[in-house]
Design brief:
Elements lengths: L13 E6 L2 E6 L4 H7 L23 E4 L3 E4 L10 E3 L3 H17 L14 H8 L24 E3 L9 H9 L5 E4 L6 E4 L15 H5 L5 E3 L12 E6 L8 E6 L5 E6 L11 H5 L14 E4 L2 E4 L2 H19 L6 E2 L6 H15 L4 E2 L5
Parallel strand pairs: 1-5, 15-16
Antiparallel strand pairs: 1-2, 3-4, 3-5, 6-9, 7-8, 10-11, 11-12, 13-14
């Protein structure tokens, strides 16, 4: 996470402490984890995300405070002269044990995981050399929901109960679809009405999948179309409305767009609606026109760009000369780029001489 996500030190509110022997300054109200991230100090975590409220559920971020106390770094506020140790042999062993318990209660086969390498749990398992414990454990065996929604797939056997999806839906999307139900070892994720995704009130914004640290909730379009390490990221602006949401698009080796994630630096602050998240498939549809068409005798025929542009220019001149510029109107498209749409309205106003231009995203 970038430093500026934490915020600058406010004059008069700075708090000095040491983390791993390094003197740092933090803001009043910051947690140990936030202060550490602001100074590029690595503390592992699973349930924390800067876009949602603190949870302290996974215990991966445990640190040693003032030599004696163990505290969750994501929830413990910093204090003057606090001394924090983020890694020592005992903390390493604790984290490894927590990770192995998570592996024991779920189905985390990294060779066949829908996260395709974008799994924070897998990264931590490799970092701490955790392994599946021997013996029989009460594992979750929930039904995999992979057909009720074209946008999301749900596999609770890979859920670590971090709560990110629950809080993302409640605090970011304000939809309250996801909840936890059951107690103890029977605790599991459920949607409202205890229904499948497609039968719930889910609006397919995909925020839960973007924040999920495992393969429990995943985005359908990328499944089977590219591993995470093969995807190439390119940032752009959403084409669908005037908010101007910033999106990170991911292409697979074949050049197809397969995933869209909200960018944290845009006005959307990482959030996307269903159109921004999944409305890119038209780009690679085989029915999409690739050559201009001109209607002759009631039928379309293929033409070159020069032929098509000359034809359109001649007809516009005729209509304007006979009936005036307001006899011409243009409808622009949300499936063109913002630059294309800008040029169209500029053309209509400056060249044709009319304000008769509209767009589906004007609302």
């Amino acid at each position: 996470m970038p430093k500026d996500a934490i915020g600058p030190i406010v004059q008069g509110q700075g708090i000095s402490l040491t983390i791993d022997g390094q003197a740092v300054m933090g803001n009043k109200g910051q947690t140990i984890l936030e202060a550490a991230l602001a100074h590029d100090i690595d503390i592992p975590y699973l349930c924390y995300n800067p876009r949602i409220s603190k949870t302290g559920a996974c215990r991966i971020c445990l640190v040693r405070v003032n030599e004696t106390m163990f505290k969750t770094a994501c929830t413990e506020p910093i204090a003057p002269d606090m001394r924090v140790v983020t890694e020592d042999p005992e903390l390493t062993e604790i984290r490894k044990g927590i990770l192995e318990m998570l592996l024991a209660e779920g189905d985390h086969n990294c060779l066949y995981c829908d996260a395709n390498g974008a799994c924070e749990l897998q990264n931590l398992v490799m970092r701490y050399d955790a392994a599946m414990p021997s013996g029989d454990f009460p594992r979750r065996h929930r039904t995999i929901d992979e057909a009720s929604s074209k946008g999301l797939k749900r596999n609770e056997d890979r859920c670590v109960l971090c709560g990110r999806c629950v809080k993302a839906c409640a605090e970011v999307q304000l939809n309250n679809v996801w909840q936890f139900t059951g107690r103890g070892g029977n605790t599991h994720l459920t949607s409202d009405l205890d229904a499948k995704i497609g039968d719930s009130t889910c609006v397919n914004c995909g925020t839960c999948a973007q924040l999920c640290p495992t393969g429990a909730i995943t985005l359908q379009p990328v499944l089977g179309r590219g591993a995470n390490w093969d995807l190439k990221k390119e940032s752009s602006i959403c084409i669908y409305c005037g908010v101007g949401c910033k999106i990170d698009f991911f292409k697979n080796k074949g050049g197809q767009l397969v995933r869209a994630l909200g960018h944290p630096d845009g006005p959307n602050q990482g959030h996307l609606c269903v159109k921004g998240r999944f409305g890119f498939d038209f780009i690679q549809k085989p029915a999409r026109l690739s050559k201009p068409l001109i209607r002759e005798n009631g039928a379309f025929k293929e033409a070159t760009w020069d032929e098509a542009l000359d034809f359109v220019a001649a007809r516009l001149k005729e209509i304007k000369a006979q009936h005036g510029p307001d006899a011409v109107a243009a409808l622009t498209s949300a499936k063109c780029t913002n630059e294309d749409n800008y040029l169209m309205q500029k053309f209509m106003r400056a060249m044709v001489g009319t304000n008769n231009v509209d767009h589906c995203a004007r609302l």
